[in-house]
Amino acid sequence: MDPFSAEGELLTIHNAFHQGQYQAVLDFDTSSLSQSNTTTARVLKLRAQIANGDVQGALASIEKEKGPDFDTVRAFAQHAQGETSTAEKQVEQLVEKSSENATVQILGGIVLQAAGRTEEALSLLSKHQGNLEAIAIITQIHLQQNRTDLALKEVAAARKWAQDSLLVNIAESWVGTRVVCLPCSPNSLPQSTQSKAANTTSNQPIQGGESYQSAFYVFEEMAQTPSSTSAKSLVAQAITELHLGRLPEAEAALNQALQQHQRQQNDEGSSSSSKDDDVEAVANAVVLATLMGKREEQERYLKELKGGRGGEGHALVVDLEEKGRAFDAAAGKYAAKVAS
C-alpha cells in the first residue's frame, strides 16, 4: 500500500507538512508506524523542525545517525543556516552514492536548485519513482524558469494517477496562478470546487479566468479550515486574491497570516513557527501595499523584509536591488552636463 494514499499511515503527517502545519508534524505520534515508514516520518519531522528555525536542534538530534536519509538532512540543515558550500559538497557526494534515495532526490534537488544548478537538480529529481513531492519541486523549478508549459505537463501527468492528492492540488494551483484563461464555467472546474463556482458565476463572470479561481478555492479551503489552516496557506490564499484583483481580501488574508505567525511565536516560543512563511507574508505585503498605493506601508514592510526577518536574500529584495542598479546606470547616461 502507498503510505501517502488515503489509506496510508503517513497521509496525515505528509499533508500537515505540505500545508505548513509544522508544529502538528512535530507533535505527530509515530510510535504505531510500521518500520518501513519510520524513517520517512522522522525525516518529515526533522524538516519541520528546520522550517521552524530550530536548525541546531535538528542537527543535534541526528548527530549519531547514519545513512543517506540523515546525511541529506544534515546537508539540508547546513544549507538552511548559510553553510551553502559545505551543503553542496555533501549533496554531490550523496548523489554519487545514493541518487535513488527519495530523501537525497528531494532535499538534494532543493539544495542544487538554490545554488543555481538547475539542470543537475532536474536530473536528480527526475530519478523519482512516483514521488509526488519530487513532481511538485520539478513543477516549481519549471515555473521559476518561466516554462509554464513544462510545469503544466508535469502536473497533468501526475493528475492521471494521483487524482485525490493534496500535493497535486497544490502544484496544480501554483501552475494555475501562471496560466491566463478565458472566464470559466462551473463545469470546467475540479469537482470539489464546482458548487462554489456555480454560486459565483450565476451572478457575475469570474475575474482572472478559471485557473485563478480554481487555485483560489484550493488555497481558501486550506486556509479557512481549522484543521488545515496555517500562515503558509493564508499567504497562498492572499496571492490568489491578488491575481483575482481582490486587494482588500488579499490584505485581510496577509494580516491574518502575520497575526497567526506572531501568535504562534508568543504561545510556543520563537522557534515554533516558520520564518520562511513570515518572510513570504511580508514580501507579499510589500507587493500589495504598492498596488494599493500605500507608500508608507510599502516602505515599512520592505524595511522589515530587508532588516529583521531574514529576508535580505529574498527574491523580491534581490530583484528590486538589481532593477535599482539598472535604473541608476540608465539614468547616469542622461545626467545633465554642467556647462564649462
Structure description:
The chain is mainly α and 340 residues long. 68% of the residues lie in helices and 0% in strands. It has helices at 11-18, 22-27, 35-51, 55-61, 68-80, 84-98, 102-114, 118-125, 132-144, 148-161, 166-176, 194-201, 210-224, 231-243, 247-268, 275-291, 295-307, 315-332. Helix 4 packs antiparallel against helix 5 and helix 9 (132-144) packs parallel to helix 11 (166-176). The N and C termini lie far apart (83 Å). 43% of the residues are buried.
Question: Characteristics of this structure?
Answer:
mainly alpha, 18 helices, 340 residues
The mean pLDDT is 86
Computed Rg? 21 Å
Distance from N terminus to C terminus (CA atoms, Å) equals: 83 Å
Number of H- or I-type helical stretches: 18
The counted number of beta strands is 0
> Helicity level, as a percent range?
55-70%
SSE string, helices as H and strands as E: HHHHHHHHHHHHHHHHHH
The SS-based structural class is mainly alpha
Shape: globular
Would you identify the regions where 5 or more consecutive residues have pLDDT less than 50? 182-208
Let me know the largest β-sheet: none
Strand content: under 5%
